[in-house]
Amino acid sequence: MAEATPDQLTLYGEHFDSRFLLGTALYQSPTIMRDAIKASRCNIVTLGLRRQNPGNRDGDIFWQYIEDSGCKLLPNTAGCKSVKEAVTLARMSREMFDTPWIKLEVVGDDYNLQPDPFGLVEASEILLKEGFKVLPYCTDDLIVCQKLLDVGCEVLMPWGSPIGTGKGLLNRYNLKTLRERIKDVPMIIDAGLGAPSQAAEAMEMGFDGILLNTAVAKAQNPPLMAEAFADALTAGRKAYRAGLMQERQTASPSTPTIGQPFWHQSN
Asked: What is the C-alpha separation between 137 and 193, in angstroms, rounded?
């Protein structure tokens, strides 16, 4: 297998040219969804089996657009509230879509849709032993992330803020700690981003990718917003690789006084 380039995202041994993962829910029409996927330049799209049923003939155009996109399909267990429910849905997804890839969600709270950390670790362990490639949607808690790695997860997907809020990166300290303490594992910020600038900031912090849905689907012009996010991810990644300057408490002149032009005269 060829090695990934610095610009590529590697998940479970597969290389992707885009670091943008896009959801397929909430769009006003399948056509708008199709155009947003194309504009995003993404390689992976997610969908919830609970929300879309490929057995429903009315959804044929939706599935045709997904297939035509050429993107890798990442089913998710959105809406599941127990380990049993999430594991059962993951097994159904593998059978239906013929893929071991799963974005694992186990909801622990109906108000902010916060993941259940205990159920998430338990479900991850079960599915990993069955050969699934698990991408767990988790909080920004360091210990939870370490437990997920301990059971075999090769990717982490901490939230920026609760799903659909658009509040961006609420706990920068936790996120920076995660990135500093867990350096060699791909981390994708999943949920809560509402603006391309927030995605760029996450990439500047060293995160490996972004997964979102609402910010694009609910925009006035979803394809244009998808393109804006794609551009922001690229800019943020380049800034991270270039190395951001360190913040300072005091001002520092960008033009030094030493070596001034010969025509400079002092009073």
From this structure: 14
Looking at residues 13-33, what average pLDDT do you find? 95
Q: Is residue 2 part of a domain?
A: no
What 3-state class would DSSP assign to 258? coil
Specify the CATH number for the domain of residue 62: 3.20.20.70
Which tokens in the block code for residue 217?
């689907």
**pLDDT surpassing 70 at residue 256:** no
In a domain, 233, yes or no: yes
- What are the residues whose beta carbons fall under 8 Å from the beta carbon of 238, sequence distance 6 or more? none
**pTM reported for the whole predicted model:** 0.89
> What's the sign of the alpha-carbon dihedral 115, 121, 123, 124?
positive
Residue 238: active-site member: no
Q: Which two tokens stand for residue 223?
A: 């394809």
Considering its fold, how many domains does the chain have in total?
A: 1
Q: How far is CA 127 from CA 8, 15, 78, 175, 183, in A?
A: 26, 22, 16, 26, 24
Lowest pLDDT segment from 10-19, 57-66, 118-127: 57-66
Look up the domain containing 127 and give its range. Answer: 19-242
Length of the chain: 267
Q: Residue 57 — pLDDT band, cuts 50, 70, 90?
A: very low
Active-site residue (options: 72, 81, 84, 103): 103
Q: 4 versus 191: which is more confidently predicted?
A: 191
Identity of the residue numbered 265: Q
